[in-house]
Amino acid sequence: MMRAILVEANPTPAAKVPCVSIVVPTRNCRAELARLLDSIDRQTFRDLEVIVVDNFSADGTFEMAAGRAAAF
Known about the structure:
alpha+beta, 3-stranded mixed β-sheet, 3 strands
C-alpha cells in the first residue's frame, strides 16, 4: 500500500480541474523532493496540481510532503 499527499500549487474550486497534473512517486528521497517542490513553486504557470505518492519512506519524505501541502 502506498501513501499519497496532494500538494496543489494553485488550489482551485472543486468544479475546476487543473490543466496539468504532476505525479511524483517517492521512496526515501526527502531532499530531492524538497528541491523538486521548490522548483515547481517557482514556476509562473500556476494551473497545476502536484500529487506525491510515497512508498513508505523511512527518511521523513511523507511528513515533509504533508507539511508542504499545507504551504501551497
